[in-house]
Write a structure and sequence with these properties.
It contains 2 helices and 4 strands; from the N terminus they run βαββαβ. It is an alpha+beta fold. Strand 2 and strand 3 form a beta hairpin. 19% of the residues are buried.
Length: 86
Amino acid sequence: MQETLHIASLLVHARPELFAQVKANLRLLSDLELHQESPLGKLVVVIEAENESQILKRIDQISNLPGVLNAALVYHEILSPEGESQ
């Protein structure tokens, strides 16, 4: 790895009746993976970015998607080029 990599995990809570639409909109965003989900409208999202500002921008974008009630950061790790977590 030649650059620092930031990995962040979010819990996204969406309106259950708009959950499919929220997931479809999330799939349009780059550097983002959808993981576990609940039929109650909860979804684990993982973001990979070069810096914190990209993560904050993505969280803001997710929060503003139609049907999203909340997007909360639950984990953030920084991987350095030397292979050390920060």
